[in-house]
Amino acid sequence: MTSQAVGNPFGMTSFGYTLMCEQSDPLSLVRDAAAAEEAGFGLAVMSDHFNPWLDEQGHSTAAWPTLGAVAHATTDLELMTFVTSPIARYHPAVIAQQAATLGLLSEGRFTLGLGAGENLNEHVIGEGWPPVNVRHERFVEALDIINALFDGGYVNYVGDHYRVDSAKIWDLPETRVPIGVAVSGMQSIEAAAPRADVMIAVEPDAELGPAFDAATRAPGPARKIGQLPICWDVDEEAAVTRAHEQFRWFAGGWKVNAELPGPSGFDGATQFVRPEDVAGQIPCGSDVSAVVEAVRPFVDAGFTDVALIQIGGDHQAPFLAAATAEILPALQAEFGSR
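Now predict its structure.
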């Protein structure tokens, strides 16, 4: 069952599931995606990292082949990168080809989510980590290249940061792959929204949606996708411990997180974050009402979709069972019709 998003004729909020490449091996992620579809989630978003944020997470599965396997293992589940960076580790032409192929493999279920990246993943190619203004310049050029390739035909491009020489995507889906962009403020919206169809954000800032709608190329109100970590467990103390162990990096905020170079940096930056600090930001335990209240700011801010993250790669099955029996029914009862 797939709930519909705000901005469509049904006026409903959709709830998605996050495939965290940093906390699970690829086979587990594929199985979890199929189970999430069975549980009633209509959207699965997948992270795309070279490194985990913390050593305790223990994985960093390659997103693109895993998404291909997920497309094969599911039938109706929408898929999305959340998010891929096209400014260093991947050339934008390569991302365009991968996205087009995944659009075909999923039979139109894929949205390409893009962002300006993090030092954690992009420094691995040995070219350093540019300042934020240069990252935004690269991001805009990358969006122009990807859009041009999605238009079809041969593309030649000469920018300040990228060159493309007679590139063409030979296998394009009949329906163009939508492009989502991660935004955090007016500067990123002004640069990226005119080149995109979908808004992505991790904080329920009510000012982002109207500004994005005013700038986007989408014909009407744009789809707006947020993300919320939770740590579901019948043992609340165990949930708090696990959330602190694996998700204390979340406390730093994206402006800080984008600059840290590796898991050891995140470990050092969060050494004074206490379990109760994490529990104050992330619902921990088995209280459905706490999840509902954590989702509410996103809905009030106009987000059409909220993708839940269950913290702990080995703790997906009980969460998905609870999602079917309790969590999704409660969310849909509260926010499904507006």
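The longest strand covers residues 223-232.
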